[in-house]
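User: Continuing from earlier, I have the next pair ready.

Assistant: Great, send them over.

User: Here they are, in order.

Assistant: Folding the first of the pair now:
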Amino acid sequence: MRRTLTPDLGRRHIVAGLSAAAAMTVAAKAHAQARIATPRATEGPYYPVEWQGDIDNDLIVVRGEAAKAQGQVAHVGGRVLGLDGQPLAGATVEIWQCDINGIYRHPADEREGRKRDAGFQGRGRAITDGSGRYTFRTLRPVAYANRTPHIHYRVATADGRTLTTQMYIEGEALNSKDFLLNWIRDPQQRAAVLVRFAPADGLEPGAQAASFDIVLA
């Protein structure tokens, strides 16, 4: 004989199902809210004035130059995500940083006998793939003047959102004195822009690697 649920038992199952669905919704919202948006930062005075010629995601080798960049090679990559954790495909990611001598590829910084390393591209551009991923082959950043080592980022998504930020090296002694890094008061947001550089001989002898996810609110 086929058993049937009593009306009360059926209602209990329905209520239990609705409660579970509500709990999952709350958990999903809590997870999204727990994701930390990458803090904004100033573009700085040395945003590249020209994006002509070699502007790919390999900053170590410049087309037309015989020598590659001086300094320690670093493979930097990560994902561009929304606050909900969804990958943002087709986003344009730009980076720029100083060379091994602390000089930017910018006419305002190449002055008074300061000559940049012509073998270092100085700026690069990549487009995120379907998983929101980007990669760059660049230099482990170095300190200059009163700044701790950092790499500038600018992200522009396909739907028109933009974010300018800076990435820093976890454990650098100068971090505690850097005015822009210390301007980030929220400990979680501060932690979001500090990344660990680790040996990556498997990618390239003597190179390092770091992972930096960028979350847009």
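And the other member of the pair:
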Amino acid sequence: MGSDDNPEPNPAQPKERGALRDFDLAKSFDLEEPDQLTSPLVFSSPHSGSFYPTAFLQMARLDHLSLRRSEDAHVHDLFSSASAHGAPLLRARFPRAYLDLNREPYELDQRMFEERLPEFVNTRSLRVAAGLGTIPRVVADARAIYQGKLSVEEAFRRIDLLYKPYHQALQNLMLRAQRRFGRAVLVDCHSMPTHAGREGATVARGDIRNVHFVIGDRFGQSCSLQIVEAIEETLRSFGYNVQRNRPYAGGYITECYGKPAAGWHAVQIEVARGLYMDETTLAKKPEFESVAEHLGEVVRIVERVAGERDEREAAE
């Protein structure tokens, strides 16, 4: 590949300090690239990171496993076929309990901090009110994460050293895909509890028992209908119960990167955790491989569909 096919390098990152002192900042995310870039697809797994900085664990009132239950555990492995189909897969190494990439950069809860937050910070969103801002206050079952309050400096350090580089890398991948193929299609990969509504749902929570996948396209605003229908139909062909936008229509990433009129499409896929893992121990089930194979077929079909410009797009 030529140099134009590679994402632009991130700026040099400062040395570790404070709560990040034991975190290898050069590897705050992993990027799995294909041998040859042949697809406009970009895969992102922002919530499957499982590296917990020691200082963070010392600040937390919860045990390690309780913190881990907020992870989208193993999701990056479910979509690992992306590179075989010519698409990159970006995955955060740090956990969502430490920093949530599917939020605005400064969605923060004043109750968590010793000092007053600057006026530009969004302290009034519904996600912040629920304790699920960029620096979460609680884990999925609404239990408080921290023993005491944090400094504003600590929050901004995480955002500068972890949040911004991830989103810069994701933006670079989307720009590369658009330059190469004329469009970019982001598949944002997540998991959901099997028998309950999950934090951050963007619409009223319903009974999602026995729902295996939820496809989110911001109610038709973030992605071509052709792509969304291809995902839905492929999953249903394997016998899965698939819902669209309820209760998860897509979060900040889907909203931010989904600009179909500009050639950027974004769709969120939520996988029921009980399909592929033990939700208590987080261990993979024997069924993991079959779910991964089915998602590999989804990747293959969407790769084909994403390479086809629908008539409306071509007319524009």
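Worth noting for the second one:
Residues 5 and 263 are 18 Å apart (CA to CA). The two ends are 30 Å apart (CA to CA).
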